[in-house]
Structures are given as structure tokens and as C-alpha cells.
Amino acid sequence: MTISSLLETPSELTDSASSKTAIVLMTRVRLARNLAGFSFPGWAKAPQREEVFAKCRDAVAAAPQMKRCFNVAIGELSDLERQVLVERHLISRELSGAKGGAGVIISKDQAFSVMMNEEDHLRIQVLRAGFNLKKAWSTINDLDSTLEDHLDFAFSPTLGYLTACPTNLGTAMRASAMMHLPALVISNQMEKVVRAVNQLGMVVRGLFGEGSDASGSIFQISNQTTLGESEEEIIKRLGSVLQSIVEHELNARAKLLEADAGKLFDKIGRAYGILQNSHLLSSSEAMNLLSLIRLGVDLGAFADGNRSVIDRLFIEAQPGHLQYAQKGEFEPGQRDMLRAERLRAEFANFTRPDFSFNQPEKN
Amino acid sequence: MANPLKCDLCSKPATVHLTQIVNNKVHKVDLCEACAQAKGVTDPSGFSLADLLLKASLNPEPAATGVRCEQCGFTQNDFKKLGRFGCPACYDTFRSVLEPMLENMHSGTTHAGKVPTRALERKSLYDRLTKLELDLTEAIKSERYEDAARTRDEINQVKQAFNQQATR
Ligand SMILES: [Zn+2]
Ligand SMILES: [Zn+2]
């Protein structure tokens, strides 16, 4: 499979948004695995990296989950192609900067991706639309068991799966959810939520942009520790944290509507106007506007089917995707113009918001 | 001010003080302005202290003891620099360095999750086979033919188990 056909195939992330994905956009589980008897990628000499890469590549490509997969060494990809894969959460920034003897195998529907010779020999990932932690764990558990039949993983009965960094020891599992939390952001409650979530042993970061900058009000919440609890326990704990964040977000939305619906509708209406008419849009402004439209969909101001359009645009408005679609590299200023053009076209036929759902019922 | 706090990473005077509660344990990190900037902790709520704590707990270590991983040549100094290990065997070599850090880093110190049962089974069968084959050579060399015959039977049994596992 080539990268262009991969990107044209409907994917878990960009094409299955339903009302189930209203607040939790997607769930991801990642496992780190290493081969016994080989140095970790950061310490291995080039020939050993190549040897491990070849071993892993054979085993992963042979897994039934990877039928007709996209299978590539990182050196075979252009900078732009790598950036597109990073923006789709299919490879990490670290892998995209890797030298020789590293690569990725991605399933046709982009639900599975296995990075080879990133920080660990294998980083196995599954992505699922919506709030689906248990299902994500069971599918990745199956793929991991399949790989285990062909690869000898480094494992210690007391420390669990051995990883390059001791912070990943044990289950070597990071489970996470990508959440859209506009009402908590608008009502300045995010800091409080982050603190509370930290105290429960979970980590929150903004998804787009570096650090904790959260353009688009999209956050990633994941487990912080990996040793001392089983995968199921971690998933259960994370699940209940996510559930309570969902409830807080819903409460915040209800409060915003109750306190000053006019102000909220103004924000959504303006976002719609700008998306339809602007000629320069930075990536973070675009994300914030799209986030407001998405909130509008959740509230009922736009049709439910538009949610998937917004989720696709969240990705396609990223610099890599924008340039990839234009088949060239552009300066940031030109990108802002292209982005605005793309979004104007997308919103030209987008039905106007209808806020009548909030009218008091007439008797 | 008496005894001002020093930066955990570079021991300049600390001006940024962070507290994070992980698994009901309070972790405190004190940083100078420069290190706080470099670590991107200007928003103390949004980042994980785990990585930072790892590096900070490495710093007060005395000079490296010269221990070297036999498998991969990694030293304690390398660990101090990189915060990563060289190979799986490093976990045995540097056990005494690692163990005190685990409690701060994780919610427990013992693995409680998935075990790669089939891979471990495969390895133990393989180890057994290697040993039996050695025994067989020994037995033949010292003309203990009864032992040799018995060992050969055992080898066949192990091989069968091996094949069964592979096709299961
Ligand atoms: Zn410092
Ligand atoms: Zn080693």
C-alpha cells in the first residue's frame, strides 16, 4: 500500500464520528515492547538497529491485523509525508526524526500502527473512535499476543516488560483519550480539572501544538504510571476519570447556556462567519473556530452529521496536510491563506446555525 | 534568607517550586528560572513530573562506580546523562540504582499486568533442549549408553512440546 492510497482510505479517526464521539473524540492504547538480547534503539549500533528492524518488520507484517498494510522505512518518506503521519497520530515526532533502521507499519484502516526503533524496539498502537478503552485494550492485547509468538520480548517477572526508559516499565502501556472540552475552557475551569486529574495519577496535555497549549480545546488524558497495576486496573481507573471529566464538561455547557446563552451563541455565530469569509487563518485560530462549530453541533445548532466534517477538518487544517494536498511546501503566511481558502470552500455550503433549540417551549 | 533552595537540576538558586501529587505521594521539585524554561514547566499543571523526577533523583548520585553492563557496555554515567538504559540486561546490572527510584516513579514496584506466557514457555523449552543436548553429547563421550538413550527420549519429548506450542 502506498501513502497516498493509505490517506485516501476511510480511517477510524477521520470518518467515523457520530454522536458517540461528542466529547471523547478518540481512544488510544500504546504498548512498548523490546526484544530480549538486543540494545535499545537509542544505544544500539547501526547494524544491530537494522537487524532488529528487519526482525520486527517481518513479524508485524505477517500479523493478520496487518493485511494489506502500509509498511515503510522512515528514510523512504519525504519530510512532508512524515509530518502528515505525525498529524494523524500514526507516528511520533521522535520517529519522524529517526535516522536509519526505523520505520512504521500501519493497517489499512489506520486503526493499528506499529513503530519500530522509536524509543523502544516496538511501539504498538491502536486508535479507536469515541470512548472505547476496553475494546482498544482487547484489540491491542490480541495483536501483542500474535507478535509474541514470533518475537522474544524482554520481560522480567518483577519489573514486567523492560523498556528503554524506566518510567514505562511494567505494563509498558499508555492508554489515553482525546477529549474536546470547550465549555471547561470557556468557563476557565480547565486548570482546576488538570490539577484534579493529576492527583488521580493521570496526565493532561493539549493535543495540538507543543506543551500544554491547547488550541481547539482538545486535550489528551493518559495514565502516568505503568508499574504496579494490571492493564485492566489502569484502564478502569482512567475510564472513571474520563467519565467524570465528561460530566464536568456537560455541566459546564448547561451552565453556559443557563447563564448567558446569547454570549455563547455569539461566539458560535462569529466562528461560522469567520470560517465562511476569512482570507488568512493561522492553524491555532482555525482550530479554535472549528472547536466552536463542533460545540454548536453538540448543542444542536448544526446537524449531527457535521461532526465528522469538523473532525476531518481538525486534521486537514494542520500544516502538513494542507501542504500535502497542494503537493508542495509553503511559507507560513501562504499556508494561512491556503487554510482560509480551504475552509471558505468547506463552509460555503454549510447550513447556517439554528439556535431555536434554546427557545422556551410555547404552550 | 537562610539556606535558600537550590535547583534540583543544576543547583543554582531555585525560584520555581512545583508540587504534584502522584499516587497519594507528594512530589516537590525546585527549579531555577533557566531550567524551568528549558523543561517547559511554565504551566506547572500541564506536564508530568515523572521525567523530571527521574533526572533530579539521578543528580545527587556520587561519581559513577565504574559498573558496566556486560551485554551492552552501558555505564551508570550514561544513565545519568540519558535517563534511559542501554539494553534489557541493564536492569539487572543497575538494579541497586533503579530500585529506590521506582517508588517515586510508579504506583507500585512489582509488575501486576500481562505476562508473555507463551514466549516464556518457549524460552524455557529451548533452554531445556540446549541442556539435554549437552547431556547427550557428554553421555555418549563417556560411553554411558543407557543415560544417552534416556536423554534422547527426553529430547524427543521436549521437541514435541515445542512443535505443539508452535502450532497451537
Ligand atoms: Zn537549574
Ligand atoms: Zn545493557
Description:
The complex is a heterodimer of chains A (363) and B (168). Helices cover 47% and strands 15% of the residues of chain A. With 363 residues, chain A is α+β, with helices and mostly antiparallel strands. Chain A folds into two domains: 168 residues, Creatine Kinase, Chain A, domain 2, CATH 3.30.590.10; 186 residues, no CATH class. In chain A, a hairpin with a 5-residue loop joins strand 3 and strand 4. In chain A, helix 9 crosses helix 10 and helix 9 crosses helix 13. Chain A starts with a helix and ends in a 15-residue tail after the last helix. The relative contact order of chain A is 0.13. The mean pLDDT of chain A is 92. Chain B has seven helices and two strands, in the order ββααααααα. In chain B, strands 1-2 form a two-stranded antiparallel ribbon. In chain B, strand 1 and strand 2 form a beta hairpin. In chain B, helix 6 runs antiparallel to helix 7. The termini of chain B are far apart. About 6% of the residues of chain B have low confidence. Chains A and B meet through helix 6, strand 6, helix 8 and strand 9 of A and strand 1, helix 2, helix 5 and helix 6 of B. The complex binds zinc ion (2 copies). The site of one zinc ion (ZN) has 8 residues of chain B, from loops. The site of one zinc ion (ZN) has 8 residues of chain B, from helix 1.
Please state the CA-atom Rg of chain A, rounded to the nearest Å: 21 Å
Q: State the low-pLDDT regions of chain A, or none.
A: none
- Hetero groups bound? zinc ion
Distance between the termini of chain B: 70 Å
Write a brief caption for the model:
The complex is a heterodimer of chains A (363) and B (168). Chain A is of the alpha+beta class.
Features:
heterodimer; A: 363 residues; alpha+beta; Creatine Kinase, Chain A, domain 2; 2 domains; two-stranded antiparallel ribbon; globular; B: 168 residues; mainly alpha; two-stranded antiparallel sheet; 7 helices; 51% helix; elongated; binds zinc ion
